[in-house]
Each structure stands twice: as C-alpha cells, then as structure tokens.
C-alpha cells in the first residue's frame, strides 16, 4: 500500500461515526429444554381430562406385518399415541419382538423363539398383517427391541408386553437396554391385579417407567381394585371385561384417582363383546358405546379407522 493510500484510509476511519456495539442477549436463568413428543404424550396419558388416546396393538399392521418396523413407522406417521409390542428372549439372550412363543404364524419359519438364535431369527421374513399360512411374505425382518426403540426414540409411547417362559428376565434385560439407550421415559409396563401383586415392588423396571394397572373382570370390582392399587400411581387401568357394567361401575373411581380408563376392543372377548371388527360395520355401537361408558384410551387393531372416528366425534385431534 502506498503512503498516499495509507493517509486516505486513516482519514476515512477517523471520520467514520462510532457505532454502539449491539447489546448482548441476557443469559437465561435456566436452560429451557424442548420436550420430545413421547414426553408430551406421557403428560397427556397422566391427564384424565385430556383427549382420547389410541394404542396400536402390535403396531399399525393393517398395511404392514405386526410387530415390524414398518408397522411402527406407519403409526408414527399417523400420529398414533402408543404402540403395544411384545418382547421376548432368544436362545442366545437377545431381546426381539414377537407375540407368539413360536415363529410359525408370523414368519416363513418354524420353531420356538426360545430355541432359536438371533441370527436364525434374522434370516426369517415376516408375513403381511397378522400372518398365517396364506398371508403374503414381505421383506421385513423380526426387529430386535433395540432396533425398534431406536426407530421410535422420542416419537411415541411404547407399551412393553413381556412374553416367553421367563418374564422376570425380559423385564431385567429390558431395563438394562432402555437405561443404556436413555428411553425409559417413553415406556409403559403393566401388571395384572391379583395375579401379579406378588411382583409389585420386586420388578425394578416398574419404578423407572409409566406404570399401568391391568384389571380383569374375573376378580374384585373395578372400584375395589382402584382403592387397593392407587398407591402405585398407575396412569391408567387397562380393563379386560366380559360385560360392560363391570367397566362402568369403576370408571368414576378411576377418574377420581387421577387415572384413565383403558378399554381393549381389539377382540370382543376383552371388551364385553364390543370390538374393532364390529366397529367396521357400526362404530357408534362399539367404539361409541365404550366412549359413552367412560373409556378414554383404546387398545385397537384398527388404529387408522379409530383415529378418524375419534376426530369426527371431537374427542381427539386427527394426527395429534
């Protein structure tokens, strides 16, 4: 740079107005963390006055294999609230998703899950929908529990239904896995009143997840179960009943305890004869009747159709 250019530059800088520095933003008193959708859904499940909620039985398997990653992804794209899935242990100690004790119904293989290694199970392919010998084969594999939770991380609640000959082992291994992955906050687990009471306080997983109290109409009245089990703070009472009056008798007690009443119309025998299949013909006489009785959570094999119905009734936003 020549001496003349230096003089011109210096004069220009001296003549330039002094502009104030921009004010620094105040440091927030506490860092605000954004909740995941799963955490928001836990709060919703804990609110007995919140919108109705949908639990997809083994995922959204009307257009995908049950308990498959494709079925779970479909649920999440539809804005379903909870996925119910089945976890059991392989011969070599891996956690995989499968409802039956054998792979016969849902895959192109045969044999007991407990007698097969993870590699053997991964070599199989899942059949479409609920399976059976006439169901088309798909390219979907049996997911591990870890693969499924990674796909669903923060996006949806997951209701873990332990299966197989050693349920305590499933719960124990699930706790280790879920703690390592940091996804315990999106899990729900249930035990059955009466049958499983001896396990309360003995399953560490239950203290780390959202607890659900399962009830069957073969035992004491629902209101009595609420009185004896509310100390465990279940978010919902998942009620399996042979007749609707059993359910209706206890709904007020369920709500008064701060919990939700959960019905399971995926099969008529679990919901007093009211079912998804009948709801395809007359939704008001089935899903609508359960709504009228006080159900606000529905375990269903028809999550897509139920989502449309509940939105039309104004009790749940579509795709929420």
Automatic annotation (TrEMBL):
GO terms for molecular function: glycerophosphodiester phosphodiesterase activity. Pfam families: DUF4996, GDPD. CDD domains: GDPD_AtGDE_like (cd08566). Keywords: Signal. GO terms for biological process: ethanolamine metabolic process; N-acylethanolamine metabolic process; phospholipid metabolic process. Residues 52-310 form the GP-PDE domain. It comes from the Bacteria. The keyword DNA-binding does not apply. GO terms for cellular component: plasma membrane. Residues 1-25 form the signal peptide. This is GP-PDE domain-containing protein. It comes from Croceibacterium xixiisoli.
